[in-house]
């Protein structure tokens, strides 16, 4: 992790991530054309397995909430279990959100998202195998309270599919947020932030930087009247990821 820590602190690390956004083009097994990239990506995301989990949502949500409760109750005693859960989650996000079979494009992949999600999964796998961080929650600061509110807002996702407000608390169990990178990452980053400085800075930084990039993409939802609500539920990803990315460089414990 030390090598990746040094690399992630260099300016060209960000240049490579930005370059990847243009180099890693989406894949489609048929009807692929560069001018259709703007249609292939949304078609893939809309038809990905994650959107069709249906009755399985309550299972995944319950498991997710169970791991959070275990972490809050048993704290560092379950850190390996929790890290493994997060690592598996990011592996799942990579494939169930970015790979699909569509009628027009056949088998399609949002390649750049797949690679970035797997990158995040990699640093969490390393953390699960050789934990460096601790979950003692002994250094809580009220200045981080806003993150808890925004993270729970994203995880709750209090909207109908048509964008109307829906404040049913059962959404914590019935939504498919536990299987979505954008709606779960704010929660994972908040957990890490509440344990600063006893976290693995590489895991923290990579998760935050990738989260910020994905968050920026989702701000496009504000430009369509039918998806404005999606913009709001993705704001926690953008804001929390940006804040955590800055902290990963500016926090006194992480400065060279």
List the helices and strands and how they pair.
Elements: H1 2-7, H2 11-23, E1 27-28, H3 37-47, H4 57-74, H5 79-98, E2 99-102, E3 106-109, H6 111-129, H7 145-156, H8 171-174, H9 181-193, H10 201-218, H11 228-250
Antiparallel strand pairs: 1-3, 2-3
Helix pairs in contact: 4-5, 5-6, 6-10, 7-9, 7-11, 9-10, 9-11, 10-11
Describe the structure.
This protein is mainly alpha-helical and 256 residues long. The protein has a domain at 54-94 and 131-254. Helix content is 61%, strand content 4%. It is built from eleven helices and three strands; from the N terminus they run ααβαααββαααααα. It has a three-stranded antiparallel beta sheet with strand order 1-3-2. Helix 4 runs antiparallel to helix 5 (79-98) and helix 9 (181-193) runs antiparallel to helix 10 (201-218). The longest helix has 23 residues, at 228-250. The two termini are 15 Å apart. The mean pLDDT is 91.
What key attributes describe this structure?
single chain, 256 residues, mainly alpha, three-stranded antiparallel β-sheet, 11 helices, 61% helix, 4% strand
Average pLDDT across residues? 91
Specify Rg, calculated over alpha carbons: 18 Å
**Helix/strand order, N-terminal first:** HHEHHHEEHHHHHH
The helix fraction, in percent, is 55-70%
Distance between the termini: 15 Å
Strand order of the largest sheet: 1-3-2
SS strand fraction: under 5%
Shape: globular
| Main β sheet profile | 3 strands, antiparallel
Continuous helix count:
11
Spans of at least 5 consecutive residues whose pLDDT stays below 50 are none
* Structural class by SSE content: mainly alpha
Count of DSSP E strands? 3
């Amino acid at each position: 992790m030390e090598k990746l820590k040094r690399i992630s602190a260099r300016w060209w690390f960000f240049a490579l991530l930005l370059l990847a956004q243009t180099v890693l083009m989406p894949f489609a097994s048929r009807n692929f054309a560069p001018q259709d990239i703007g249609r292939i990506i949304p078609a893939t995301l809309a038809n990905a397995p994650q959107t069709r989990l249906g009755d399985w949502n309550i299972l995944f949500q319950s498991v997710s909430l169970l791991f959070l409760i275990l972490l809050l109750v048993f704290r560092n005693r379950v850190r390996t279990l929790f890290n493994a859960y997060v690592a598996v989650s990011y592996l799942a996000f990579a494939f169930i959100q970015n790979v699909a079979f569509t009628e027009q494009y056949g088998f399609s992949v949002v390649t750049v998202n797949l690679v970035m999600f797997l990158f995040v999964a990699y640093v969490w796998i390393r953390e699960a195998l050789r934990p460096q961080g601790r979950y003692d929650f002994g250094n809580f600061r009220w200045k981080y309270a806003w993150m808890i509110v925004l993270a729970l807002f994203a995880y709750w996702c209090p909207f109908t599919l048509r964008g109307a407000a829906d404040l049913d608390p059962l959404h914590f169990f019935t939504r498919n947020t536990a299987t979505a990178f954008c709606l779960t990452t704010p929660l994972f980053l908040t957990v890490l932030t509440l344990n600063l400085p006893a976290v693995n800075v590489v895991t923290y930084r990579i998760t935050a930087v990738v989260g910020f990039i994905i968050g920026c993409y989702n701000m496009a939802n504000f430009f369509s009247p039918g998806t404005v609500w999606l913009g709001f539920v993705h704001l926690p990803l953008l804001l929390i990821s940006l804040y955590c990315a800055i902290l990963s460089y500016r926090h006194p414990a992480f400065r060279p």
